[in-house]
Amino acid sequence: MSEPAARPAPLSTAAAARRVFELSFGEMLWSRRTIFMALVVGGPVLLAIIFRIVEAFGAPALRVNGARVAGGSVFGVMIWMLYIRFIVPVLGLFYGTALMADEVEDRTLTYLFTRPIPRGAVLLGKYLAYLACTSLVVLPSVMLTYFLTVPFAQVASTFRSLVLDLALLGAGLAVYGAVFAFVGARLKRPLVSGLVFAFGWEQLALALPGYLRQFTVAHHLQSLVPHTMPADSTLSAIQGLFRQTTSVPGALAALGLLLVVFLWLAMRTVARREYVLEQ
Amino acid sequence: MAAKTRYFVLTAAGILTAGLTTGLVASYMGGLPVALSHQAGPDDLAFVPPDAIAVGYANVQEVMASELRQRLRRLQDANPDSPDRHDFEEKTGVNVERDIDAVVGALLPAATGARDGNPLVLARGRFDQVRIEGMARDHGGEVSDYEGVRVIAHTGDEKTMALGFLAPGVVAVGSIESVKGAIDAKRSGRNVMSNTEIMRLVGELDGNNAWAVGRFDAMASTTGLPGDLQQKMPTLSWFSAAGHLNGGITGTFKAEAKDDEAAKNLRDMMRGVVAMVRLQSDSKPEMRAFVDSLQLGGEGKTVAVGFSVPAEMFDALEKMHEARRPAEVR
């Protein structure tokens, strides 16, 4: 009588997350969602190209109330208005909420859960794939936008700000991704809830005086931005009036805490929740 | 990893690496190599010594031809009490509007034991050297030769002022030390263009027809700013101001603080001031356009304020001026 085949030893969380990352990274990168990401991230680069062409002909590309706006300021406004306020939360929302939802929708979750790996590692691996995928699209786009808008003569004086921008955009993608990964793992309609959080709650809390802003990702992230906050709308003018920045260590600690707590909650939710696949 | 994924990762990493390397090289060298970055500022900066505290520039021809200047000239012509603008021409033989193209000004460190800095003005244009020398001699000036350059010196009550013909069409005016410093700067090639801090700021001001940059703390001590004011602005290191005159004036004032924290505090304070001014402007409609144009900017250690005074505002001020003048003058 032959002995039954030995069951493979279950992988550790780190090793399992790495396997899931390898599987998910390419899949995520070439998904339909990436077309959306390319369009969103390509916008600032396109604007920067137009800016550079107009400036090359000696004409001021951007004037505010008749005053010429310098390339460095244009880049600062792009970081604030396009990347910090829109691109980072939107990418975190669309990718983060879909980490588990896609597997449920495609009914492929069963294949992952029947493997001898911790369930939480599935989410961790997919989260790392999201982070790599978005960072590799967003950060080069910021780099291109920077060199297209900022004159070469100002590179030396503004390079430190660029490095800070890259670091805080990476941090933003990580924290928003963790928050929305939890929302995606926990709630039934994560996209709607995520939209309400990112463009409802966060915007409202930032405009109110008091401590409510401490419960937003945006407040801590915006405390680290090296550029001046533009007053482009009534809402941002009110937000600017009541703006209280946290110290750099405080903001970093808050972002780190949010990242760890929400990622842990998301992994715990995936490990405990019974997913019912609709037939 | 699939081949196309690998190519994508390599391309993205390549863009990031190339950008970061370029930025690091620029930061380390104080700027990008000349091949990549054109020389900022006017050529006459070659006459400014490298230790200049502040440097300024004005494109006189553009400023004089601007609509704003024409408007001010009409106002001046209409005012019988205004000083005669032909007075300067009669004394020096130089018509500013016709003969001067551009002016570079600089403030050099004070001589040992002296309190005030040494001013230097470099004018580029068309000058009648013989006539100017003759006039200087008539007023007690002494002509000498310094490193092959004709220098006219005039000793007053406290200082010796001088004028030197540095090159065809370039005249230097200032203290004897600063004029000699300008001659030495050009001859030795050691000039303000090698001052990376000043040239970095000058490089940001392209496209303006008048600008000034300088070290705020050094200027505050050499120009004798009141002690209270100096104490209230201890965190500022560099400043730059630039303006473009045509129908109106557009300009920016930028200051660099000692550190990010000081700049952030200053920006917060300025934001409050701008918001307050905006609220107040409702009662003064003639100031509305100017107040709306105030833009606060800056990043890291810098604080910047941009403004624009449109031509319409000068119209309003002109009307106010007309209304206040006595009827017999009108």
How many strands of chain A? 2
Point out poorly predicted stretches of chain B: none
Run of helices and strands of chain B:
HEHHHHEEHEEEEHHEHHEEHHEEH
* Most extensive chain interface and residues per partner: A-B, 48 and 56 residues
Report mean pLDDT of chain B, rounded to a whole number.
77
Helix content of chain A: over 70%
Domains of chain A, number: 1
What is the count of β-strands of chain B?
Answer: 12
Q: Report strand % of chain A.
A: under 5%
Q: In whole angstroms, how far apart are the ends of chain A?
A: 41 Å
Task: Give me the side-by-side strand order of the main sheet of chain B.
Answer: 4-5-6-7-3-2-1-8-9-10-12-11
General shape of chain B: globular
Short description:
The complex is a heterodimer of chains A (279) and B (330). Chain A has 279 residues and is an all-alpha fold.
Please tell me about this protein's structure.
The complex is a heterodimer of chains A (279) and B (330). Chain A has 279 residues and is mainly alpha-helical. The longest helix of chain A has 32 residues, at 155-186. Chain A has one domain (19-272). Chain A has helices at 13-29, 32-56, 71-96, 98-105, 109-113, 119-149, 155-186, 190-207, 217-222, 234-241, 248-272; strands at 63-64, 67-68. In chain A, strands 1-2 form a two-stranded antiparallel ribbon. Chain A is built from eleven helices and two strands; from the N terminus they run ααββααααααααα. Chain B is of the alpha+beta class and 330 residues long. Chain B has a domain at 35-194. Chain B is 43% helix and 25% strand. Chain B contains 13 helices and twelve strands. Chain B has helices spanning 3-29, 60-65, 67-78, 86-92, 96-99, 129-138, 176-188, 196-203, 216-222, 227-232, 260-280, 288-293, 311-324; strands at 54-58, 100-108, 118-125, 142-146, 149-155, 160-167, 170-175, 210-215, 236-245, 249-257, 295-297, 302-309. A twelve-stranded antiparallel β-sheet of chain B has the order 4-5-6-7-3-2-1-8-9-10-12-11, sandwiched between helices. In chain B, strand 5 (149-155) and strand 6 (160-167) form a beta hairpin. Chain B starts with a helix and ends in a 6-residue tail after the last helix. The interface between A and B is large, with 48 and 56 residues.
